[in-house]
Predict the structure.
Amino acid sequence: MKTLLALALIFATSAAVAQEKLKIAFFGFEMISTSDTPASEAERLRLARLDIVFEEMLKASGRFEITPIPEELAAKIAREIKFSTCNACEVEFAREIGADVAAFGTVQKVSNLILNENLYMRRADGAPFFAHSVDIRGNTDESWERGLRYMLKNHLFVGR
């Protein structure tokens, strides 16, 4: 009987741990243009769409929870911060708001044909959690979204 109770307790504890969702502080996608043309309005809209797709897919996975970023911090970030060059400042912000993991992405535009989507995720203690990149061909709404969905489905969600 004691053995059965011990096994039941172990099973209940591991099931509860398995159901805990990692809290993600997501700071959005940034554009890095190494082409001759600045980011267009269509590209800015695509960046915003990537943010939405990322959050929707993480929530739908059942494994992650998006931690809201307080308005004051969001305003400071909008005014002052470029995550691709801030030397892991996202980790400090994630800790500040109680998230387990900090995340942001970039879209590097080489040309209208060649783009690269990158996702960077670090634990709140600074340890790497996930980093991956996909190349996409074609500067369209469909190619941008397909690239992100592929990365998440085939790399982030595998084995997590």
The radius of gyration is 18 Å. Confidence is low (pLDDT under 50) at residues 1-17.
